[in-house]
Amino acid sequence: MPSLYVFALVMLHVVTQTSSARSMMVPTSEMAEWNTTRRQLGTGSCRTGNPIDDCWRCDPDWESNRKVLADCAIGFGRNAVGGRDGKIYVVTKSSDDPVNPPLGTLRYGVVQEEPLWIIFDHDMVINLEQELVMNSYKTIDGRGHNVQISDGPCITIQNVSNIIIHNIYIHDCVPAGNALVRSSPQVVGMRGTSDGDGISIFASRDIWIDHCTLASCRDGLIDAVISSTGMTISNNYMLHHNEVMLMGHSDDYVDDKNMQVTIAFNFFGEGLVQRMPRCRHGYFHIVNNVYSGWEMYAIGGSANPTINSQGNVFIASNSERTKEVTKRESTAGNSEWQNWNWRSDRDLMLNGAFFTPSGEDSASSYLKASSMVARPASLLTAKEPSAGALICQIGEQC
Hints:
The chain is mainly beta.
């Protein structure tokens, strides 16, 4: 165990990039954090046991075969096909017009009615003027370039389905609103004030967010509310944020009992405080993630959510006040939450971390919160995390 612990701590620091990695347009102050997750997989070593990555990253022709990604999802969001069955749309402009977006902008692509697989023709930083309201059957695929959405309102997924967001760096998102915003070619409507989430999911289903880097937003990095379900949040790198992920609208909103979310292969990095995630009512499979410390708690909830934590690595900080992984919010105290089904199954607890289980221990109690087979947690300490937005070179394995 000591050797695993030492390696787990080492892998939190900067990993030297391979010589083939090109310069990224990341702010200098965040380059160290960004580099932590950049690892090019060499020939003969591309298969890692991560079923998502092993599905596509070994292919040197990934650029020509981009849509294969849509068949690589796992977990509760596995039915999200995004724009797989549509045309390729190329973003050529970083500018934004919330009402009349011109052809070539990201907003023009995401509001169209037909399925689209959206890619980018060069590195770009997109500063949106208003929240980016997406239409159904869209993929935003940043592979091959450094694509950032930052320093403005960010992504809203509302009353739609079949969305894939992949390989985007989303950071420093702020509220906006009380303005006209286009949500389809035919519809422009007045939007209220947005929360400042990185990605806001509202009354939507079949959503997959994979290999994104998210940091420093005004509200949540990824929040999902109002009967959203069928979601997978995977291979993301999250850092420098307070309330990371909220899953469930409110304790009184019982329709969120149908929510099913898979949170897998993510790296919860430095500077995170709480909500990784914070859950209400539904079913949450939290599997094969690495948690590198938390300032309050890692996994929390209220209103009797089912938490199935499997094969994760929890590395507590050195503070004696933040060793516990879990936090429950209940006005009735232990007498209420002791019946909530929360379990830790083959998780690896390091530096004094501990998980407080509750409820039933039988496998049948977690069927609705089971969505994939967990790998042994010890395998996650065998190499540095491969999470967050990737450097993908055209013509090479990613």
